[in-house]
């Protein structure tokens, strides 16, 4: 399967979500269709502190369209925490972290093992 891409509009939605939830985190499941991520499923509930602490207790609705996850780091540190790295392999291959200040450059994508992945953004 070729590497996945993300729709620009969805990326902008993720950045907006990060901004609107700040200083709390948000967590979303990313859905792909034909190799393009264009949908998200917001994991409900306001989360304060470290999202990842919650991941272990959360039963995620997995289906074949699940590409991975997206969540925010209000601290602005755009790298996976230890808890993130335990969580990532459970929920798909691609994981986006959005950081304060939630601008166009405030995000990175990681593979399940924590390697940086440069995901292509398409219109
Ligand atoms: Zn995290």
Report strand order across the widest sheet: 7-6-5-4-2-3-1-8
CATH superfamily grouping: Cytidine Deaminase, domain 2
Order of helices and strands: EHEEHEHEEEE
Largest sheet: 8 strands, mixed
pLDDT averaged over residues: 87
Shape, please? globular
CATH architecture: 3-Layer(aba) Sandwich
Helix count equals 3
Query: What's the helical proportion of residues?
Result: 10-25%
Give me the count of strands: 8
Q: Radius of gyration, rounded?
A: 13 Å
Organism: Methanochimaera problematica
Pfam families: Prok-JAB
InterPro entries: JAB_dom_prok (IPR028090), MPN (IPR037518)
Keywords: Hydrolase, Metal-binding, Metalloprotease, Protease, Proteasome, Zinc
Describe this structure in words.
InterPro entries: JAB_dom_prok, MPN. Keywords: Hydrolase, Metal-binding, Metalloprotease, Protease, Proteasome, Zinc. One of its GO terms (cellular component) is proteasome complex. This is Proteasome protein. GO terms for molecular function: metal ion binding; metallopeptidase activity. A hairpin with a 7-residue loop joins strand 5 and strand 6. Helices cover 20% and strands 33% of the residues. The radius of gyration is 13 Å and the shape is globular. It has a single domain, classed as Cytidine Deaminase, domain 2. With 123 residues, it is an alpha/beta fold. Strands 7-6-5-4-2-3-1-8 form an eight-stranded mixed beta sheet, covered by helices on one side. It is built from three helices and eight strands. The structure holds zinc ion. The site of zinc ion (ZN) has 6 residues, from strand 4.
């Amino acid at each position: 399967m070729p590497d996945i891409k993300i729709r620009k509009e969805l990326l902008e939605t993720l950045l907006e979500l990060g901004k609107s939830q700040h200083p709390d985190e948000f967590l979303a499941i990313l859905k792909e269709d034909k190799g393009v991520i264009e949908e998200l499923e917001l994991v409900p509930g306001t989360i304060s502190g470290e999202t990842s602490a919650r991941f272990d207790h959360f039963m995620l609705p997995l289906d074949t369209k699940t590409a991975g996850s997206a969540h925010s780091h209000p601290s602005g540190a755009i790298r996976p925490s230890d808890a993130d790295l335990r969580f990532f392999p459970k929920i798909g291959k691609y994981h986006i972290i959005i950081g304060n200040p939630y601008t166009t450059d405030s995000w990175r994508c990681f593979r399940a093992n924590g390697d940086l992945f440069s995901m292509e953004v398409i219109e």
